[in-house]
Amino acid sequence: MSNPSHPPAVGVLDQGPELTFPPGFLWGAATAAYQIEGAATEGGRAPSIWDTFSHTEGRVVAGHTGDVACDHYHRMPDDVRLMADLGLKSYRFSVSWPRVQPGGSGPANAEGLDFYRRLVDELLANGIEPWLTLYHWDLPQPLEDAGGWPARDTAGRFADYAQLVADALGDRVKYWTTLNEPWCSAFLGYGSGVHAPGRSDGADAVRAGHHLMLGHGLAVQALRASRPQAQLGITVNLYPVTPASDAPGDVDAARRIDALANRFFLDPVLRGSYPADLAADLREVTDFGHVREGDLTVISTPLDLVGVNYYSRHVVAAPVEGAEPEKYWRAPSCWPGSEDVRFVTRGVPVTDMDWEIDAPGLVETLRRVHEEYTDLPLYVTENGSAFVDAVVDGRVDDVDRLAYFDAHLRAAHEAIEAGVPLRGYFAWSLMDNFEWAWGYTKRFGMVWVDYDTQARIPKSSARWYAEVIRRNGLAAQ
């Protein structure tokens, strides 16, 4: 239920839930281990690539690190009670690989697993379905030292780690996703270098992407063998990619970026093959010699669900000599073989991340996955926005974020009406947190976090979302 000391936000819900979601629709919120847990050196945890990256001068805004973050490791029971107060039906969290298996191989760290046992038990005791993500970017540093995701062996190590977690939590956790946003891990971590581990090599990025998917497939096989009742999937970040005009060069630019951003992962996982045009685009980067016989069969091991993270749309245009990329996360080396494609801004409203707000793109994305790729149940496993928030008289009235959620939930409902088997929605994020290379300068949370005191304040969007969950719907406009 919503916090009784704060009445539900008024406005879009006043007329009654005329847009009703299906019975049993899974309403949740999401976080990631390194972004919230803190306790970076406690309980047997060892460094991940993000510990190393954030402690390297110049890598993260203002030198921020995840050493303390939201101190969720120590405040977990209170945070779960907050989730229950908001009426969440599910909580999507990630397990910290270096907390569970500090060296990236060998036996599990019992103290690390115990934290997640307590978290799962606390969630279940409060009527909240645990949704476990095995990898949200925190590779153990020893594995990076041995080559990281560009090295094939890392895929096998990931499957071993997945088995350790399944042995400990598989009796109580129904929903499992292997990877979160492998595009970011591969192309931001090993391509542009703006994310950990901070390497910048196009061929390494492509190899990393393949081995991430191979690790996914091996993990699914291990989980399926030991936990046959589990619901298994992967979470991919997808974008509708639109040409800036009908000109052939712009259309081809959109095709190229769509291949790298979307089809690079969707095709191997759901079709068991790489797109032919992608291989042609990358011919100057790699010959795909790292792909071995049988890899694509493993990668396309059948799933039970697909998670879609959606934030914005890419609008692209043909190269212009001398043009520079406009945004750090779209740096040229994010797009090996297509470095000169231009990303076009349209003058529409943006978030504090400078990401264009495009709710119809969610409908487009969900319909595409369903109509072109799979009949599997789909879940929006992340959707949210960063805005500049402020505490005024003890409240955080984040009207822009509330409007963002409202628009995207209407889009989700539209997708369901169009026949998409959408089964749930996870708001990003439950609380303000360490926003990767932006440190603590960007706030995505429905709950305000005072990083000095660790006080939590549910924002207006959180109270509004609690009412959406309670009513399982939105008012018609």
Structural account:
The two termini are 24 Å apart. The chain is globular, with a radius of gyration of 21 Å. Helices cover 38% and strands 14% of the residues. With 477 residues, it is an alpha/beta fold. It has helices at 33-36, 49-54, 72-85, 97-100, 110-125, 141-145, 153-169, 182-192, 202-226, 248-271, 276-281, 295-299, 360-373, 399-417, 460-471, and strands at 19-20, 26-30, 90-94, 129-135, 175-180, 231-237, 241-243, 306-309, 314-317, 342-343, 378-382, 422-428, 447-449, 456-458, 473-474. Helix 3 (72-85) packs parallel to helix 5 (110-125), helix 8 (182-192) packs antiparallel against helix 9 (202-226) and helix 13 (360-373) packs parallel to helix 14 (399-417). It has 15 helices and 15 strands. The strands form four sheets. The protein has an eight-stranded parallel barrel, surrounded by five helices. The protein has a single domain (19-474), classed as Alpha-Beta Barrel (TIM Barrel). Residues 1-14 have low confidence and may be disordered. One of its GO terms (molecular function) is beta-glucosidase activity. Keywords: Carbohydrate metabolism, Cellulose degradation, Glycosidase, Hydrolase, Polysaccharide degradation.
